[in-house]
Amino acid sequence: MELNFKKQNPYDDVPTMQSNSLVKGVFGAVLGSLPGIILWIIVAYLGYTAAIVGFVIAFGIIFGYSKLGGPLNGAGVAVCITVMIVALYAGVHLSWSAMLYPVHPSIPNVVFGLYGYLSKYDLIGDFLGSLGMGYLFGLLGGVGTITKMR
Fold it and tell me: How far, in Å, CA of 83 to CA of 64, rounded?
């Protein structure tokens, strides 16, 4: 009987490559969301609502994740959905802030005090409707993009 007393590295079983890819994927998804958020703000400021913007946000997020994090797997889909929820909210919030800016020309006050202004002008229902449409457009764009990529 032969005994083998090789010292094992306790970190051999740690999935460093996958967690590193996940972190890179999150970063890529956030970066990929930025053009869509900016487009959302511009389109909404011009007074339009376009489903294509939700697709652009979803595509950018999924593309960014795939470029930096690798192939889209279960964790990648979860990351993309989470980033999409946050990005769509940010786009709607910032677009409403931009629309209120001419009335109250102070960017920090409008961005951070948006709900106060929405209450003051009785616009909370309109804001929530816009947010709901944004989530619907993002869902449609995300599902379409994910099914084409898989």
Answer: 11
- Spatial distance between the Cα atoms of 132 and 144, rounded to a whole number of angstroms: 18
Angular region, 70: left φ>0, alpha ψ -120 to 50, beta rest: left
pTM attached to this predicted model: 0.81
Q: In this structure, which amino acid lies at residue 54?
A: G
* Nearest-angstrom CA–CA distance, 139 and 66: 18
DSSP sequence for 99-123: HHTTTS--HHHHHHTHHHHHHHTT-
Euclidean distance between CA atoms 144 and 138, whole angstroms: 10
- Phi-psi label, residue 28: left if phi above 0, alpha if psi -120 to 50, beta otherwise: alpha
pLDDT tens digits, one per residue of 86-111: 999 999 999 999 998 888 888 899 99
User: pLDDT per residue over 34-57, tens digit each?
Assistant: 999 999 999 988 988 778 888 899
Q: Strand locations in 14-118, DSSP E?
A: none
